[in-house]
Amino acid sequence: MDGLDEAKLRALAGARSYERGLAYTDAVSGIEVGDDWIRASIRGTESYEAELVIRGRRDPVGTCDCPYGQEGNFCKHLVALGLTVIAQEADLSQRREAARDRARGLGDWLSGLSPGELLALVQEEIAEDRQLRRRLELRAASARGDLAEIRSRIRELLDMGPFAQYGYVEYADARAYADQAGQAVSAIRSLTASDRATDAMALAREAIGLLAGVSESVDDSGGWLGQVGADLADAHHAACREARPDPEELAHWLVTQALDDAADLFDIDPLDYEDLLGDPGMATLRKHATEAWTARRSGWAEKHLMQRLAKAGRDIDTVIAVHAADLAPDGRTHLLIARELDTACRPADALEWAERGIRATEDLATVDTALVDHLADRYTRTDRLTDAVTLRRDHFAARRTLLTYRRLRAAAQAADRWPAERENALDLLRADAERTSTQGGRVLVDALLDDKDIDAAWQAAGELGAHDGQWLTLADHSCPTHPSDALTVYLRLAARLTRETGNYAYEQLVSLLMSIRDCHHRLGTPDDFTTYVTDLRATQKRKRNLMRLMDGHGL
Questions:
Q1: How far apart are CA 166 and CA 273, in angstroms?
Q2: What is the maximal distance between C-alpha atoms in the chain?
Q3: To 10 degrees, the CA torsion angle through 212, 215, 220, 223?
Q4: Residue 408 has what pLDDT?
Q5: Residue 417 and residue 424: Cα distance in Å, rounded?
Q6: Are 334 and 371 in contact (CB under 8 A)?
Q7: How many whole angstroms separate alpha carbon 235 and alpha carbon 259?
Q8: 59 φ/ψ sector (left φ>0, alpha ψ -120 to 50, else beta)
Q9: Is the pTM of this model over 0.70?
Q10: How many CA atoms lie within 13 A of 341 on its CB side?
Q11: Cβ-Cβ contacts under 8 Å for 299 (sequence gap 6 or more)
Q12: For residue range 482-504, what is the model confidence (pLDDT) as tens digits?
């Protein structure tokens, strides 16, 4: 089980559950090992059953019947089991082989029983195990070809009632319900294998409808019901391949299924049936899909189906028409269309749609930034540098942030127009600062810092205000050349941190102390720093973690 290590366990469980799991490693017992799973009992306030499924390098999947585990969490019991797996890695192969030997021994024993003895054994087991009895009754009905009985049994298997409380199947019971529902899949597959594919197809559709009807009432956090849905879809497809249903009827059912609210549970792709549908069926499929989309152009499922069919048929114009029928006001749909057209090697049409998206957006402050980036990139690639600058300028004017300032700078530098554009952009930020005080000033300071114009940034911060992070950046830039100015900032920030607690605050404070020491060194005043640190230690001596950090850095 190479996909398991302590770091992965900690990531799955979180620090708290991982640490608690360390104390339970001695409580693990009754370990059973399979090819890709391991289960055991873990003794806590009660005895719980935990199981890990480990496939290759993928994250392990764990289940535990403790209260915390039943909520879908990777609990301390799973951590303890995982740590046991890691510690006993060398023994796992032997345990797995022993389990295989036991299975072979059981098979040999069963093979040696007479028919009468085997029958008596089965009757004894089904008298005690209701689930086993129901499974065997279903298989018997399948062997007899009793369709009415099979249908009745399948309905019983998909009935969530015995597992539900107040009309809902909780996570703790979802797996048991899914295990029972999975028996319906086996029955349907048995019918197909018994040359009764038409019946199997009909029952598969009924089962899909029944499962869809209860899916919203089951907590499927573990994905168990989803697997049953996928298996049902596979069973239906296999039955159709044998039964060869009417293509037009099949097409209608596939469209109906694709548009159902529970379609994701089964993930049936109509195009998987293309060879069964043939040209007449595919035409009917497209007809029904188009009718559904025409009636509800903004429906996600309708749009997805139309686009899926259109892309499969390389009908780019239909793909565009579907997008164009439901355009978002921020231009993101225009961007999707432009990208589709670029992929289809229609750059002129792509550019037109991107430009249309910009024009259609009433306020560039709300436009999808990715559309602006896309169009500016196209302008730059086609040597339309002036258009790229204009677009970036307009976007910056509407949304004055550090990001849009950087984008404008890059475009203007490429067009050799940055000095003039920079002055205009800074004028806008200064005007903002005068209107909005601190907030506008902070964007201005960010822009000046990004330009490495430290003196102007200092002046703007002093006149308009700045947040602590900006002051710290200013101080760090200025320390080599203006240590006195930097020292004033460091001391002010340090004073605030002395009123806080917690390791994060202590780490920040120690970093500032090192910068303060550097400033005093540059100023030739090391004794002043010694006095400052001595006083600080006297006032902060009860913060033991801070003292340890200071000791570690020679402060």
A1: 39
A2: 102
A3: 0
A4: 96
A5: 11
A6: yes
A7: 20
A8: beta
A9: no
A10: 21
A11: 259, 292, 293
A12: 999 999 999 999 999 999 989 89
Buried b (16+ CB within 10 A) or exposed e, 114-125: eeeeeeeeeeee
Count the Cβ atoms, other than its own, within 10 Å of residue 35. 10
Element (H, E) at 50: strand 47-53
Residue found under tokens 């002129």: 348
From 517, 518, 506, select the one nearest 543 (Cα to Cα). 506
Where is 42: in which H helix or E strand?
A: strand 37-43
With b for 16 or more beta-carbon neighbours within 10 A and e for fewer, the 466-485 pattern comes to: beeebbbbbbebbbeebbee
Residue 261: count other Cβ atoms within 10 Å of its Cβ. 10
The answer to whether 266 and 232 are in contact (CB under 8 A) is yes
Q: What is the sign, positive or negative, of the torsion defined by CA atoms of 243, 248, 249, 254?
A: positive
Q: Per residue in 80-102, pLDDT tens?
A: 999 988 888 767 777 777 777 77
> Do 464 and 440 touch, CB atoms closer than 8 A?
yes
348, containing H or E segment: helix 347-360
For residue 209, the one-letter residue type is: G
Neighbours of 509 (CB within 10 A): 24
* Residue ranges in the chain modelled with pLDDT below 50: none
d(CA 376, CA 355): 10
Q: Which two tokens stand for residue 290?
A: 């188009």
pLDDT score of 437:
59
- Where would I find the beta strands (DSSP E) of 224-264? none
